[in-house]
Write a structure and sequence with these properties.
Order of helices and strands: EEEEEEHHHHEEHEEEEHHHHHHHHHH
Strand order of the largest sheet: 3-11-10
Oligomer: single chain
CATH architecture of the largest domain: Orthogonal Bundle
Organism: Umbra pygmaea
Largest sheet: 3 strands, antiparallel
InterPro entries: H3K4_H4K5_MeTrfase, SET_dom, SET_dom_sf, TPR-like_helical_dom_sf, TPR_rpt, Znf_MYND
CATH class of the largest domain: Mainly Alpha
Structural class: mainly alpha
EC number: 2.1.1.354
Radius of gyration: 23 Å
Protein name: [histone H3]-lysine(4) N-trimethyltransferase
Shape: globular
Keywords: Chromatin regulator, Cytoplasm, Metal-binding, Methyltransferase, Nucleus, S-adenosyl-L-methionine, TPR repeat, Transcription, Transcription regulation, Transferase, Zinc, Zinc-finger
Length: about 450
Amino acid sequence: MNGICANDGIEGTERFASPGKGRGLRALKHFAVGSLVFACPAYSYVLTANERGAHCEYCFTRKDGLSKCGKCKQAYYCEVDCQKGDWPMHKLECTAMSSYGENWCPSETVRLVARILMKQKVTTERTQSERLLLLSEFEAHLDKLDNEKNEMNQTDIAALHHFYSRHIDFPDDQTLTVLFGQVNCNGFTIEDEELSHLGSAVFPDVALMNHSCSPNVIVTYKGTVAEVRAVQDIQPGDEIFNSYIDLLYPTDDRNERLRESYFFTCVCDECTTRSKDEAKMELRKLSSAPMPEEVRKMVRYARNVIEEFRRAKHYKTPSELLEICELSQEKMGSIFADTNVYMLHMMYQAMGVCLYMQDWDGAMSYGEKIIQPYSVHYPAYSLNVASMYLKLGRLYLGLEKKSQGIKALEKAIAIMEVAHGKDHHYVTEVQREVEDLK
């Protein structure tokens, strides 16, 4: 492996001390909208168990006819080179998966940490993923963890020992506690063009960027490489900001999520001005406006039902889940407009259930209600908007609404060309879909 000097850096950017934020990333040159700021290979990564057989375990390529590992028969690969490339990591799990059978159930985080430990064991020099920030420099925020998070860490450490003790010489539990804290605060989820979860990874240089609710870059993935592209014009001297969270929700909700997961409160212009909050919290036009306390009460109900739905996914049937969505929309709709983000959240969940149940008309109906408000509430070039256009376009085509399908796919392409880059295979795949229809 070629050694990398700490001052090699990433062309056009530099690490710097960001006022009030600690370290950050700053531009040294102009980046136009859609241009690649930098790419970062994963330091370590793992394909989610649900995508086995659909994606190559090593390069994350999605295709039919993958070859499975002859021993565990659970990992799939494009070709022999990918299987050989993955063996140093796959051997951690191969024998264990064979012997444990259905009892093989470490969490994705545990699987990722096991791979990081293995990588650290064989890697002594700075890697291509750490040109500006070492993985060892990640913040763990252990002093800010509540009892529940501490208990989860300890459960993960126990699972790590249980499933991987044959292959890894573990450091002491305090070192492991720090590593789990670092991964939980700095890990990334790799997603496809429809925002389906593909896996988890750590990208140290990408983690250097601070958060803003009005980010000037977006992170997308090409296999197991993270690509950072400009979604606003970036001038020399500007700090480069990513978003850590879903930006659909109003300021208070966003900051609650940031405090809970990342232990800070955002003070970006969007949070200071709350410029989008009124539109995001749009109320139904009624003869007499609801009292502020009624609105607050409905917000509390909305947050509770969102949490209830998240838990119910694990034990209720699709028809029961759809009923939760419909009843909550009915209740919230007495005060909230259809464009209100809490209404949109439940519509999105309902659309997902309809897709699962193959109720294509129901899914299309929800998608049509969602897409325009999404375009208003999300920043420009949002993957959430692009993925909704993609889903809608494919639904239209399946329901033989060809012209509407083409129009929706073309709108998806316009966003994806900026977010993913014009040469990304996700973009060319959708462009082929459109060309084949014309």
